[in-house]
Amino acid sequence: MKIETITICGGGNAAHAMIPITRNHFSGKLNIFLPYGNESTHFQKLIDEKRFLTATIRDKKIYGRPDRVSKFAKDACKEADLILMPLPAFAHEPTLLQIAPFLKEEAIIGAIPARSGFEYAALKILKDNKKEKVKIFGMQTLPWACRIKEYASKVDILGKKRSVGMAAFPHKITSELAPFLSRILDLKIEPLPNMLTLTLANVGQIIHPGIMYGLFKGKEGLKYRKEKIPLFYQGVTKEISETLRMMSDEILVLTKEIKNIDKSVNLNHVLGLKDWLIYSYKESIADKSTLQNCFVTNSAYKGLCAPMKKVNDDYFLPDFQARYLTEDVPYGLIVTKAIAQLAKVDMPVIDEVILTISQWIGKEYIRGGYLEGKDIKDTRIPQNYGINNLEEIIVY
Ligand code: NAD
Fold first, then answer.
1. What is the mean pLDDT of the chain?
2. Which residue has the least CA distance to atom 5 on ligand 1?
3. Average pLDDT in the 155-165 region?
4. Beta-bridge mates of residue 145
């Protein structure tokens, strides 16, 4: 695997963290592709003024700058051997559509995090552009919790995952790609057997919509004073943890059914939610006895509040346009539900969560119990890419 040029797409929090980290562990050429709005001009001007981007991780500082910044896919991507997309899931397709015509035949392109169904969209766009040799990968989560402090200048890395799962297609590149990504992202990477694992083991699809549902169902119009805004993860009650457990169990039933249909498919990395929390946050959970306690006593979640929007100086309402809903439902739960539909597995609790959240975000995904609502075209279900059977899903 010869990687001499890397292109990072986007200029959000994750890209800001990735630029200095990659720069410090990769000596080749580093490009940034910024097609969105006037980000490219803005970024170029500021990075020229500040000279480099500084990432702060605890008391350590890491510095770096890209070699090239461009608004144009051709300039940013035509030489790239590896393209990293640390982007919100709704930006994957617009980005892929722009860069696909200019990709090198042997390029590798990956989404960090992949969320669900990344492979269906990516492979369709690559095929439409006659770039079938381009390889893809996805990572299970973003490795860092990070926030831009000053655009093109300072980013805070607030936390780093112990290890992050990565799956690639074709699978055979995983063994070479995992150590390379591990080195440039300075991170332990766990190779996963297939891309379906990324979809089913996307725990954000359970945690974010599930907690929002539990906190705000029936209280949609309730206004909160600033000091009364509920904690998000540490605000999980026994009842909310029960909803989360049932959602997780429904995904495990689907996983089992897929394994029954094809005994050769390896879905061993799709864990129940409690097992995943204990695996991922081993050191930060004080009491691992129940699912609720895994949230409430997890110091990594300390102080994180539910997403709210300000109504006036005194009051806040739940923010139903937050990523926890607008990303984790159409690029998460809905994709899993679509696979369940193909496997003929019922998901009553997940259906109820989707139906409630669809109303909150003003979308219609389910109609008459099926994924036939008017907004289903804007999701990443396999059926939208002409995939209508489980066999094809399992191949990836
Ligand atoms: P962000 O909101 O900071 O990203 C915004 C950037 O995405 C924009 O600056 C732009 O460059 C790009 N973008 C947005 N819309 C676009 C479009 N239509 N076309 C092309 N580019 C577009 O997001 P982030 O915080 O960097 O998060 C990236 C991903 O990581 C998301 O999936 C998020 O849920 C996930 N994540 C983030 C964190 C975190 O701490 N930031 C933690 C866990 C997971």
1. 96
2. 12
3. 89
4. 159
Note the pLDDT tens digit of each residue in 359-381.
999 999 999 889 999 999 999 99
Distances (CA, A) of 276 to 134, 184, 206, 255, 282: 32, 25, 12, 15, 10
Ligand 1 atom closest to Cα of residue 14: 26
pLDDT tens across 277-308, in order? 998 888 889 999 999 999 999 998 999 999 99
CA distances to 12, 96, 244 from 73, rounded to whole Å, are 17, 10, 41
Average pLDDT over residues 81-99: 98
pTM above 0.90, yes or no: yes
Tokens found for residue 171: 């699978």
Residue 283 has a pLDDT of 85
Residues with CB under 6 A from ligand 1: 10-14, 35-36, 39, 86-89, 91, 94-95, 113, 142, 145-146, 323, 327
Best of 71, 77, 140, 142 to mutate for ligand 1, by most ligand atoms within 8 A of CB?
Answer: 142
d(CA 165, CA 271): 12
Are 385 and 393 in contact by the 8 Å Cβ rule? The answer is: no
Q: Between the CA of residue 30 and those of 20, 50, 67, 83, what are the distances in Å?
A: 10, 18, 5, 10
User: Which among 7, 8, 13, 16 is the best mutation to test ligand 1's pocket, defined by most ligand atoms within 8 Å of the CB?
Assistant: 13
Q: How far is the CA of 85 from the centre of ligand 1 (A)?
A: 9
Tell me how far apart the alpha carbons of residues 371 and 390 are, in angstroms, rounded to a whole number. 16
